[in-house]
Amino acid sequence: SKKGYRALKEIKKNGGKILAETAPHYLLLTKDLLKREDAQKYFMTPPLRGKEDNEALWEALRDKYISVIDTDHCSYTTEQKFLSSNCLDILAGIPGSETLLPLVYSYGVKRGYFNVKNMVNLLSTNPAKIFGLYPEKGSLEVGTDADLVIFDPKKEIIISNSQQHTAAGYTPFDGFKVKGYPTTTILRGKIIINNNRFYGERGGGKFLKGKRSGLY
Questions:
Q1: SS3 for 39?
Q2: For residue 73, what are the CA distances in angstroms to 56, 64, 92, 98, 182?
Q3: Peptide bond into 172 cis (omega under 30)
Q4: d(CA 67, CA 7)
Q5: pLDDT at 184
Q6: How far apart are CA 40 and CA 48, in angstroms?
Q7: d(Cα 29, Cα 74) in Å, to the nearest integer?
Q8: Contacts with 28 (C-beta within 8 Å, 6 or more apart), sequence order
Q9: Which pTM was predicted?
Q10: Most confident by average pLDDT, 58-62, 133-137, 210-214
Q11: Nearest Cα to 130, choosing from 207, 15, 19?
């Protein structure tokens, strides 16, 4: 939020060691969505704020006060989200893992808030360093895990619910137009997604043991 950004700047100004993150929904969505009949789909904690808060967070990213853009991904289905209309009982959280990269590129890089190198830091290198996983993750150094995304900066799509593969079955960014979209995902040197088709195998995941943060 705008208020949070002011506090963050003050802490850093006074020499405080602090890391901050945000997510696409706090950059692109507003509390007006909570007036809709399907408001439960946009319920999360912290809640959505106003447009001025969106703008403050973009400014914070531009000036490098924020270290990470993440997804806050929660794969609650629409059925689960609509189990209650009481804000004390609604399952808080929204899906976002499939839309992170195209949204950040389209609305962050293309609008001049940061360049591609800084985007990579926000989405990959910094998270890896924070959790003590660098350089095995978040780098392309020889001998590391070779986790790669092949990205087409010219591919234009309109994000839709029907494109999503997660258990949630919907996206809060339905209808958003993006230019720039991933075509291939490589995990430890092996293609697991290509042209929207999944080739991964059950049990292909690997536990990652973190170490002390590489940033502080």
A1: helix
A2: 22, 23, 11, 9, 18
A3: no
A4: 15
A5: 98
A6: 12
A7: 16
A8: 54, 103, 107, 173, 176
A9: 0.94
A10: 58-62
A11: 19
Query: Residue 79 is which amino acid?
Result: E
Model confidence over 145-156: pLDDT tens digits? Answer: 999 999 999 999
Q: Please say whether the beta carbons of 65 and 12 come within 8 A.
A: yes
Under CATH, which number does the domain 2-198 receive?
Answer: 3.20.20.140
| Secondary element (H or E) of residue 194 | strand 190-194
* Separation CA 20–CA 159 (nearest Å): 27
- Taking each continuous run of H as one helix and of E as one strand, the counts in the chain are 7, 6
Say how far apart CA 210 and CA 130 lie, in whole Å.
9
Q: How far is the C-alpha of 61 from the C-alpha of 104, rounded, in Å?
A: 11
Nearest to 98 by CA among 153, 39, 173, 203: 173
What SS3 class is residue 178?
Answer: strand
Tokens of 91: 């399952």
Q: Band the pLDDT of 213: cuts 50, 70, 90.
A: confident
Q: If you search the block for the tokens 């609604």, which residue do you land on?
A: 90
